[in-house]
Amino acid sequence: MKSLIRPLMALAIACGAAFVEPASAHAVVGVSVGFAPPPPRVERVVVRPGYAWIPGYWRWNGVRYYWAGGYWAPARAGYRYVPARWVHYGPAWRFHVGYWRR
Fold first, then answer.
1. How far apart are CA 29 and CA 31, in angstroms?
2. Which domain, by its residues, includes 95?
3. Overall domain count for the chain
4. Tens-digit pLDDT profile for residues 77-96
5. Which residues contact 13 (CB under 8 A, 6 or more apart)?
6. 63 lies in some domain
7. What is the pLDDT of residues 9-20, one digit of tens each?
8. Computed over its alpha carbons, how large is the radius of gyration of the chain?
9. How many CB atoms lie within 10 A of CB 94?
């Protein structure tokens, strides 16, 4: 039984990789909050060749907002990163995740 675990895990990973969404796909997370997030924090970074800075954003944990800091990601030729953001819809605020756009 133990000898089957690794091959089955490798197969599951390979199958999962076959169903990856296109790089330009993005989603709206089902979070709606009744009051605005705080203003974004200023994150000072130095240019890092070959990488793109993914800026931080305010996340909602069901009770309050908390800051998720930015990070470096390998740059993708021909793409630009659209940062995560909160959008005002009627009386609430909705969160849109960041994504790479061609």
1. 6
2. 26-101
3. 1
4. 999 999 999 999 999 999 99
5. none
6. yes
7. 665 565 554 444
8. 18
9. 16
